[in-house]
Amino acid sequence: MSASAKIASPSTSTDNINVDPTGFTKLGSQLPTLANILVQATQELGLSLSGMQQRTLLLYLDQLLLWNKAYNLTAITDPVEALVKHVIDCLAIIPHLPSGSLLDIGTGAGLPAVIIAICQPERQCTALDSNQKKIRFIKQISSELGLSNVQPIASRIEAHETSYEVVTSRAFASLIDFVEVAEPRLAKGGQLCAMKGKAPTDDELQALNQEWQIKTIELKVPRLYDSRHLIELSSKNV
Prior knowledge:
alpha/beta
């Protein structure tokens, strides 16, 4: 994901989130503006989220920025920029995800695993990363936000043996590398879902299309002027 992506300027919208500042540390006076941006983005993405779910997303953002230096979570420190490039960017894939248990490889600060878990409390989400500090952050924030459907695991993917119906990643630079490490963790009939900036190259598609049914979805991320795609891969050998 490109950290240099441009962001559209905010505009006002009806706010259905409780913007009581209690529990927020970093967002402060920007909370009403951030809430407006989030409400409008969820509407544009066609997501039906409660006011409490949207408030929880903002609480996650607040804690992400609060603990950023301690856990080295993100290079982005501006709240509006972080909301768009992290939270809303992850929200954009949710309408396209199939149902079922989910593994997020290289989850970092919990992106997209924690965002999906907040929006889909019925889905079990495993957040996997080899970075112990980032997994400690996810454990801490999951406890504070009451996310019982998040399982943070500090491990390399090669050492993790459980199978899942959906496997996601936002961190892999190479689609081919992602498929190679994710395939062993994919349950029969499951789907790989790779978040990418640019669409796959012809070379990548040719290397994969013999064994995989590939669907490239161009995402429209509200307030983000940059290329975003979701690559869905289903095995042809089911």
